């Protein structure tokens, strides 16, 4: 049985189109626009999902920051040995415990802010002040 060949492929089978070869989760190549505006709706939904993921990831990272800063403060504050290994006599150790306490307090405030923002959608402070607080707190904590 002969199949009519229109010059596109062998035996009348069309080659796979660009939309079928494109990966499903490819962000760099958005789906081709359609006449009814599906592409705009799809891009908005993808943006919402991305922003929601970023909020959840930020909350998870703040929770990890809180846990690790609490753990470091507890370990530093409870490091009690006798005799010559009494670290409370060293000024550097007391400084380290003080910095560990400040990092714990800062991470606690950040976690509470993030949880409130995630659960209610509102923040304790305006967006600009919150951004400045985040930036300065993170910079002081690093240096």
TrEMBL record:
Sequence ranges of Polar residues compositional bias: 1-11
Primary residence: membrane
Residue intervals passing through the bilayer: 59-78, 93-112
InterPro entries: CASP_dom (IPR006702)
Pfam families assigned to the protein according to its UniProt record, in alphabetical order: CASP_dom (PF04535)
Membrane-related topology note: Multi-pass membrane protein
Keywords: Cell membrane, Membrane, Transmembrane, Transmembrane helix
Region (Disordered), start-end ranges: 1-38
Compartments where located: Cell membrane
Domain Casparian strip membrane protein, residue spans: 55-140
Domain of life assignment: Eukaryota
Cellular-component GO terms for this entry: plasma membrane
Record carries keyword Cell membrane: yes
Known partners and oligomeric status: Homodimer and heterodimers.
Family: Belongs to the Casparian strip membrane proteins (CASP) family.
The protein, known as: CASP-like protein
